[in-house]
Structures are given as C-alpha cells and as structure tokens.
Design brief:
Structural Genomics Hypothetical 15.5 Kd Protein In mrcA-pckA Intergenic Region, Chain A; binds zinc ion; 5-stranded mixed beta sheet; about 30% helix; alpha/beta; 13 strands
C-alpha cells in the first residue's frame, strides 16, 4: 500500500466527517502548557487525531500519586521527567506526529515558540503560571483553551484575544483551591521543615478526561475553523451531571486585554509615597502579585525610596514587572496629594 494511503487509513473514520480536513490537522501546531491530568488527555487526543506538531512543556517529575490520573505515565516512570516520558509514549502511539518537549517552566520557553503555535492549551495547576500563560496568549494574539478542575467539578474557557474575555477580565478561580505544583527535579532535598506543604487538591480521572476532552475538541475546532466556539465559561459538575454556561464580559479596563493595555493605564499616585506604598496599591487595585519590580526612568527602584525623590512627574510612565505578566505593565502616574 502506498505510504499516503496507509497514513489516511489511520484516520478513515474521522475524515468521514464533512467538516473534517486532515491536512489542516496535519498542519496544526499546538502548545500544551502542563503535562498533568488535563495535559495528558489533550495530548493523547490530539496525537491520535494526527495533529502535525505538538509542543509540550512541564518541569515536573512523575510521582506515584500522578498515576491514578495521568495516563501517559506508568509505575516504572516514577521520578522521570514528565515531558520526556510523554514525548516517547506519544511518538510510539503515532509516529506521524512531531513532538517537541520542553522540560522547563513556561516562562523560560522562547517566545517564538508561542508565536509559531496555532493554539495554546492551558493544563496548568498554579494561578501564577496560568495568569502568565493568559497574558502571553493575548500578547501573541493566539487562542487559549483553558481548563481547570477541582474534585467533581471542572471548567473550560476559550480566549480569543480581544474578541472574547481573557482569564484576567473576570478571574473566577480561587487561588487557594489551585493545586500546588508537584516536585521539580532536584528540589526535594532542599526543602526545610519551615516550608509548610499546601494540601493537595482532590482530583479525579473521569473529570480530567471530560474537561481535557472538551479542551481537545475546542482546539480541533479552532484548527479546522468549524463549529461554534465556546464563548462562555463552561462549568461542569460531575456529581449532579450538569453543564452550566455562564456569560462572561470583556473588561475594558483589563490590564491584559483592555483597550488601555498597550498605551498604558492611568494610575493615581501620591508623590510623597514610597515605592512600597505604590506596590501595595497595585496589589490592592490591579491584583498584581509580589514579587514585582517597579521601574522608573529606566531604573529598578528600591521599596523605601520616595517617589518625589526620584523626581516623578505627572504622566510619568512606570513599568511594572512580575512573574504573572509576559510583558511589563505600563502605568502613567497621575499625581495627586492625599
Ligand atoms: Zn482581559
């Protein structure tokens, strides 16, 4: 049998769908952030369907407690890198697919990789990394397919930058419910007794297969350009077996996708305040998390410095950098004395 016919026979059922175009799927490039329960499901689905290129990124190692949900890993993989094991497994499943693996944090991946992707999939388990992924998706104008889960519950949201609300427009996920990350290589022995372990989040394979399956489906629809995209917040409750769609609104003042994001956000500043005071107000009003850096006149400023000592002017542009934003946030100081 010619090679092409052999390849197509693998997909003969899905190409029966009138909306299907295997060549579009074969040309598709998808970035999956996180190889946990959701990332494993999305990767498995996309690879079996014959996605052209899959980029997987995770810095974690496999733990025994992952094996009840993360279906790309087995007992003998414990302590190995998640992406290395997943890459080998996925290539064995479908050698047509190119798999690129990054054993590092998502923030350390070359931004060009995000630019080259057609869709970015969120399979992360920390609020900080998820917020950063949302901001780079908006910055690179790439669709983001977000999924989350907690116990019997799950949720999916698709972000089409500047068209649908981003994750920062209306953050719905309480941080305390998000699982702490698993153990990165080499970090186990460095732990001191002072570090309190966050309780692990309840997590169920059936929920991850449903939520990951919906994420994979939305990804495929985006690549094919077919169907109605999920433009609401989808909430799933496995105990009552209900799907609820909640309407989300774009926030024009959103610091990630709002109109003022590119030209800068006006921010009221008292020149007698210190840099620390300014940081505290940014935390309170724009929900920017520590650690952050405040750059005025091109210099990172210390917390105890008073803004008027730096010679801050009305409409002075200030750059704010933290780990949750792919690009620094620009604010314009609107000076007023309290
Ligand atoms: Zn937004």
């Amino acid at each position: 049998m010619p090679k092409k016919a052999r390849k197509e026979s693998r997909y003969e059922r899905q190409i029966l769908l009138k909306e299907w175009d295997q060549q579009k799927i074969r040309n598709g490039k998808v970035f999956i952030a996180g190889m946990g329960a959701l990332g494993c499901v999305v990767a498995l689905d996309l690879v079996l369907m014959g996605i052209g290129k899959l980029i997987i990124c995770d810095f974690d190692t496999i733990e025994k407690s992952n094996l009840s949900r993360q279906m790309l890993f087995q007992e003998s993989d414990i302590n190995k890198s998640k992406v290395t094991v997943a890459q080998k497994y996925l290539i064995d499943l479908n050698p047509d697919v190119e798999i690129i693996a990054f054993n590092k944090e998502i923030q350390e991946v070359n931004p060009k990789i995000y630019e080259e992707s057609d869709v970015i999939v969120d399979g992360l388990d920390t609020f900080e990394a998820r917020r950063w992924l949302n901001s780079i998706s908006v910055d690179k104008n790439k669709p983001l397919v977000h999924g989350g889960m907690y116990g019997w519950l799950g949720n999916v949201q698709v972000v089409i930058p500047f068209k649908t609300p981003c994750l920062d427009c209306q953050p719905l996920l309480p941080q305390e419910r998000l699982q702490k990350p698993c153990t990165p290589p080499g970090k186990k022995r460095k732990k001191t007794k002072k570090v309190k372990k966050a309780p692990k989040m309840p997590s169920l394979l059936t929920i991850s297969t449903i939520i990951g399956g919906i994420q994979a489906q939305e990804t495929v629809k985006l690549i094919l350009g077919v169907g109605k995209l999920l433009d609401n917040f989808l909430f799933y409750d496995g105990l009552s077996q209900t799907f609820t769609l909640m309407k989300l609104n774009q926030n024009s003042n959103c610091i990630v996708c709002g109109k003022n994001r590119i030209k800068g956000v006006d921010f009221s500043v008292d020149p007698r305040d210190t840099v620390r005071d300014l940081k505290d107000r940014l935390i309170m009003t724009l929900d920017i998390k520590e650690p952050m850096k405040v750059i005025v006149k091109g210099i990172i400023r210390n917390d105890n410095v008073k803004l008027n000592k730096i010679g801050i002017q009305n409409k002075e542009s200030i750059l704010i950098i933290n780990k949750e934003m792919a690009k620094p946030l620009k604010i314009y100081a609107i000076l007023h004395e309290k």
